[in-house]
Amino acid sequence: MNPHHSFSSLDPGKQESIRNSCLEEFVRGGYSGASTNSMCKNAGISKGLLFYYFKNKKNLFVYLTDYSTKLLIEKFYEGMEYNKEDLFERLLKWTMRKWALSEQYPLHYAFLVKQLLDCPPDINLKVTEMRNEYKAQSLSLFMHNLDFSNLRQGISKQKALEVVFYVIEGLKERNIAKYKQNPRPLNELHNEILNDIKEYLDICRHGICNGRD
After folding, report:
1. pLDDT tens per residue across span 31-56
2. CA–CA separation, 91 vs 97, rounded Å?
3. Pairwise CA distance, residues 207 & 213, whole Å
4. Which of 18, 41, 150 lies closest to 85 in space, CA to CA?
5. How many Å apart are CA 183 and CA 163, to the nearest integer?
């Protein structure tokens, strides 16, 4: 969702100031509790101007989702090296790389996490479409130079990927539910998630791969 062209004509520093003010408010209150009045006050602009740029709160939210997602994806792949490694090694490496970005861009990362917890159904549909498009692009890059030589005989690459991705997606949903019940600093949650991922991937490894250290 692109803003009005006049927003893109602003000084980059002013654009960032407006975005950050809006991101901070969405992180604070989620979509339902975020105040556009607070956004405007912190950004030093009028409410009329904010809506001139973005039309409404919904479009602003979708724009920030797209902007934050693109930013983190761009930084994620910046300087990426695709060394030959197996499925499990790559999943762990990419997970750690993603979390490292959460420390470099905490506001954008926190916004995307908050979005998972508080996003109206109509907006969530648009956001899910956007997310699936980026996932499809990421999958082709994830597969580049991936080593499947240790798969057990008779196990297809596709089935191996499906099994592991189902596990990862299940862990994601479970951790979202846990975070909803008990919000904590994300770095604390990362440690628990990493232990879970390692344990479940170890089960997958020994279930679908030949015995090899």
Report:
1. 999 999 999 999 999 999 999 999 99
2. 10
3. 14
4. 150
5. 29
